[in-house]
Sequence to fold (202 residues):
Amino acid sequence: DMPLDRAALIGCSVMTGVGAVMHTSNVRPGDTVAVIGCGGVGLSAINGAAAAGAGRIIAVDTVASKLELARTFGATDSVDASAGDVVKQIRELTGKRGVDHAIEAIGLKQTIEDAFNMLVKGGLATVVGMARYDLKIELPAITFLQERRIQGSMMGGVRNSIDIPRYVDFYMQGKLKLDELISRHRPLSEVNEAFDDMKTGA
Fold:
């Protein structure tokens, strides 16, 4: 019964984003979560955080339309990264507290470091974004005394034979938003144009 164009999304961005929240990070009800980057993976992470019962979900991006879309996936707040220091904005938004979990879905030095720096004491940053092989990050060593942690996530730590059918069930039950991830359908004859759309973020 699963529409195949929706099912195709589960095999990459959806299981990466949802899995990073539910498996790798183990977000619990009431946690505050920031998701940096609101593409397919980030929106899926937001959806996963909402399904996991996160108390507050903060979407971070530079594109206003993506921040608006993030709210339909479950974001309770948004931060415009183009407006200045993201960590400062997050701390102001949370009463100088920070977040329990930061999900980084871009793969840039600045965004990975921001994810770590916006954490509360004992918080966990999970890097999902595909960084360049030679990329190095810098973290303030003193903050490790606050028991902050950083980890990576590969495809959301998903167990394919168990979790993909589970995500199909989530979609069929209305818990997982997939329709909203599709911006356009193209015939196979326009596959090159579709790749161009993907590369430009269209």
